[in-house]
Design goal:
This protein is mainly beta. Helix content is about 10%, strand content about 50%. The longest helix has 11 residues.
Amino acid sequence: MIKSMHKWTTNTRLRFTLVLLAAFAGSAAISKSQENAQTVPEITEHAKVKYPPLARQARIQGMVHMRVTTDGHGVTDVTVEDGHPLLTENAAQNVRTWKFVEHAPATFEVTFNYRVVDDQVKFLRQPGIVEVVESPEGGINSYTLPEKWNAQVRNAQGTIETSLTLWTYHDFEQELDGYSTGPQGRERPIHETHIDRDMLGFDATLEDKYGQRLKFSMIGKMAGNKINGVFLNYWGAGGTWSAERTTESIPGANSAPPASQVESPITAADIAYHEYVEYPRFAIDAGIEGTVKLRVSTNGHSATEIDAKQGNPFLVRAAVSNLHTWRFADHMPRTFNVIYSYRLLDSEVEFLKQPGMVEIDEVPPLVIIDNGYPYDPPEIWHAELKSSRGNMRADLSLGMSYDMPDGYVLGPAGKNEKIREGHHDGNMLGFDATVQGLDGRPIKVSVLGKKTRNKITGVFLDYSGVAGTWTALRERSRAKPAR
């Protein structure tokens, strides 16, 4: 059994559209490895094979051919015959760590192969099967399945009824995600989300009964199967909202066995048009893979009914969304089954599975371009919060960091409380803060506001579920004293 000199660890999976894959060399390369050289002796020890970091970033690929000489125990000489300079040194260094079983001193050839392979989609190359392959990313440790909530958003202008689909996941901390569904069935993702135990907030675009789209910032407190909260729309008008969890199942959450008979197999020749099939980003982050089985009926032009038989709900949603873009070429109404197969490429090294050949499968790093640290200096705002608890006052030091509100609630003797969960869109802003109540005890609040020059007006919800309104006035900057 081969014994590694270093403990193998799980590779960090990073967002990118390519993976680095070491594939078998062609027959010509194999012949070259064997020509005038002995078979590689059995290896008992070697260092972990890694793709050179700079070569990964530059996505440099190619073969490295080396001639290796041993003394019967270890490597005494390595001669690089050809290869890219950023690859050859890495390969040669690894070979020098090899230890062998007892053997007669020998010379043999070794090939390291580094090759870049695109992630791919195989669209109906097999009848009824769409294969989607992506590089894994990771980062999401756990998640909840999507749940539907029937919501009502109310203010003086009327009531908007909508459906919310929400789920949570844990990355570095707990996160919220989801989408709203309007009266025409169109999904719109929520954004600027945050969640802190039973308090949650997000921005959403909703449709009223006249089909007008309105943007809202919403905060709420969850209690069992209900959410109650307040909102501020982008016109600056506030109101209340509530939502109740439904028992309606999300497609794919409760899988059923697929139909055993396909009435009419579908092939690529039957499809006149379809949008590119994408692997859902959340599923890549969470390491979700598997198959989605769908039963589809058409009117001869497009899909009229799609029944999800099996699959993870995050994959089902992506598959159904893509299938709605299909346009058919035969103009004959039909029913068929479709399988979407989602598979993640893993990172690994296959060490000498083929004599003289080392395969390296790696994921390239995320390239981050740092354009500096965007920062606007803080300004002092004097805030007043009104609710059934009474009036509370707070002085805020607010600035912008990476285009998000950042700062403190100023306390006595320099005991400042950092604001949290800042978000910003145009002149709309929101954040969580801890202010001092009338009895001197700290109260945690989520606030939403609309800024107009020197004033902020908005609504808030404290962590006990009590709603209120708030305003803040900007303090005029003081002139610097003359020297």
